[in-house]
Amino acid sequence: MSNTPHTLQEEFPGEGAKISALKAENPRFAKLLEQYDAVNDKVHRAETRLDLITEEAEEHLRRERSQIKDEIARALRG
């Protein structure tokens, strides 16, 4: 989906090369990126009302996205 807010490029500006390198060498990190994109797409679809879900479910997705983002940030710092 295009124009999805909270893309990794927006969340980690200037880290594109490091993200690509880690993705290529670390399968766990690559999986985190896939999970982030999948959850982020779900949040975006809920926020734009393409998918109708409860507020609780939407909040759960936001928390999940935040947790994955934190793991990605830790990997980038490590």
Describe the 3D structure.
- This protein is mostly helical and 78 residues long.
- It has one domain.
- It contains four helices and no strands.
- It has helices spanning 8-11, 16-25, 27-47, 55-77.
- Helix 2 (16-25) packs across helix 3 (27-47) and helix 3 (27-47) runs antiparallel to helix 4 (55-77).
Question: In short, what is this structure?
Answer:
74% of the residues lie in helices and 0% in strands. It has helices at 8-11, 16-25, 27-47, 55-77.
List the defining traits of the structure above.
about 80 residues, mainly alpha, single chain
N-C termini distance: 30 Å
Q: Averaging pLDDT over every residue, what do you get?
A: 93
Secondary structure class reads mainly alpha
Strand proportion: under 5%
Poorly predicted residue ranges? none
Q: Please compute the radius of gyration using only Cα atoms.
A: 13 Å
Q: Roughly what percent helix?
A: over 70%
User: How many domain regions?
Assistant: 1
Order of helices and strands: HHHH
Secondary structure tally: strands: 0
**How does the overall form come out from the CA principal axes?**
elongated
* Biggest sheet details: none
What is the count of DSSP helices, taking H or I runs of 4+ residues?
4
